[in-house]
Amino acid sequence: MENNPITVMYDEHALISTGEQVIKKIENLWETNTDKYKEIVTDLIFFFRNFADGVHHRKEEEVLFPAIKNHPDFVLQEIIGELELHHEDFREYATEIEEAIANGDYNKSHLKLQKYVSELLDHIAAENEELFVLAENLLDEEQLETIYFKFKDIDMEVGEKNKEEMKEHLQKWIRLLTE
């Protein structure tokens, strides 16, 4: 299928998952370079808030989840509710990390960041292995294509330039920290 929205979701998950590399590389960095640690965490939060939540989770919450929930053959409504609760948890983590940074509690910020990414990776695995497989089996090609173009509408609304800027907040640290 050429316009498969599930492929879009998998690709976005792959990008979001790379945040773990950065988080591992900056453990205890605040002890030697507080300013750099704060800059990197600020960029991570920017990426997670704006891309992971503002683009990816938005596509799920506004388009994919309703399409699945409204399908007459779908009976496991609680799965969608649980995934939506995860999204709320991720928003809370971002706020808690920012507060810890603002208070100079870098150890706490990093512990929260590690918990955030651990739960985010579990969430991604659940969607990849269960929800997306379910969606591809439940929805027909026409429904999937409609979802794909609704995703494209969100991308156009956000703007490709803005999406690239969001990605760059993560990718620059991956490049710098893995060289």
Describe this structure in words.
- By secondary structure, the chain is mainly alpha-helical.
- The protein has one domain: Four Helix Bundle (Hemerythrin (Met), subunit A) (Up-down Bundle).
- It has helices spanning 5-17, 19-25, 34-69, 77-102, 106-138, 141-158, 160-178.
- The chain is elongated and about 55 Å long.
- The model has no long low-confidence stretch (mean pLDDT 95).
Query: Order of helices and strands, N to C?
Result: HHHHHHH
Total discrete domains:
1
The count of DSSP E runs of length 2 or more, i.e. the number of strands, is 0
Biggest sheet statistics: none
Primary descriptors:
179 residues; mainly alpha; Four Helix Bundle (Hemerythrin (Met), subunit A); 7 helices
Question: Would you summarize the structure shown here?
Answer:
The protein has helices spanning 5-17, 19-25, 34-69, 77-102, 106-138, 141-158, 160-178.
Topology:
Blueprint: H1 5-17, H2 19-25, H3 34-69, H4 77-102, H5 106-138, H6 141-158, H7 160-178
Helix pairs in contact: 1-3, 1-5, 2-5, 2-7, 3-4, 3-6, 3-7, 4-5
